[in-house]
Amino acid sequence: MRTSRGRGTRDDATAWEPPDGRGKAVGFPDVQQAVARLLEAAAGPATEEELSGGPAIVAAFVLAVNAAGPRPGEQGLFPGGRRAIGRVPVLVAGIAMAVGVAIGGTATAGALPPRIQEIAHTAFGAPAPRYHGDGDPRAAAKTAHSATKPERVRPGKPHAPMPGKATSPGKAKGHLKTHAARTRLKRIPGRKDESQSITLFAHSAQNWLHVFGFDSPERGRSQPRARSRGEMAGLIPVAGSTLYGWKPPYRPARPDTRVGPVRHTISCPRYERRLPTKVRSMDSWSARRSGH
Amino acid sequence: MLRAAARGDESAFARLWRDAHPLLLRYLRVAAGDGADDVASEVWLEVAIKLARFRGNEQDFRAWLFTTARRRMTDRRRYHARHPIVLAGETPGLDHAAPDDTAAEALEDMSTRAAVALIATLPRDQAEVVMLRVVIGLDPVQVARIVGKRPGTVRVVVHRALRTLSARLATLREQGRVPL
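ok -> structure tokens follow
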């Protein structure tokens, strides 16, 4: 039914406006006054029967309060109440994340103290610590000599980069001093003859010196296989670093060849010698190499 | 009072309950019928548990209370639709003893009970909206949110319901059985 509010009369259209249910219908028709009284009665005061279950509900409320633990305002440690308590894990997580990002960024930049940088380097592959002014002059001279010495290439033998080319002598010495743990090497899969060439993956180029990465003789070329930053050809891990991957330049005959740790030696076709599994220091490695 | 109750003040909660429970019970008697007391108990238990997390003023609390009541009522209705109760055999437990009804109590109780009973004769959606909008005093937007309608629809439903009530009251008057 359309209301006739625009007519300005007190008809039922305005009479049915219920502002709060308790309005006085003075001046309205009797029926409308009766409705107003009806609504007023429906909103009347509570009766005894309606309020009979109060103690049980209040007891349930007390139980619920006790079960829920301390309420807001009762917290001495967190005066802000439960909402503040709820924010604590978020706050702790935020602080932890900020600290983590700060340490991670510093570690990535290599600016942490050497010991901590070393831990970060071991834990998640941050750059190894840099040591300034602690390089061994003898090793530095040896490496520099090998780097500047004209390389002797045997006819028919593939060419490989010499040790010390990729890393500065002082830097390499620093790494050798830092990493005292043993180096774990992986077995070369497939053939074990000298034509097998390998490419080792390192998680940090700073841990490596030149040794590995020889092309297969049947390819007739001698080029180091350095495809990316993590795939360093012609490198040897310094003492303490860990080889965690390898990849032959050609697919092995049996792709399911198991890769296991090498017990003693691995083949090195370029130098026709056996490399020690444990590279204790650059000196020991150089001595073996020069002895050969 | 609401904040004190939210903090766990027992007396504040008791006052809150005394203020709101009669209207809640009347609303449920209109909308839920016989199960009004059970639904009201469930509603207050839920309120007791969740009150600490409630944020708002008294009006918001009322809206929240009746929203909760309507949800529990809907749950109960669905449950009974799936699990109908079939009474069989003798049911002596249903013969409740009359409460302590003195004449004064009966007279006092008469008007409210009769008014609620008369509102309950309306179609359920109309009775529900009249109770929420007129008797309890929620604004149309809150009522619309509770019953899932638009505020304009709520106004129209209230209008029709009051017209129906008026017609029924007129009929009762003509029959000489006006309860008020």
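Residues 101-107 of chain B have pLDDT under 50 and may be disordered.
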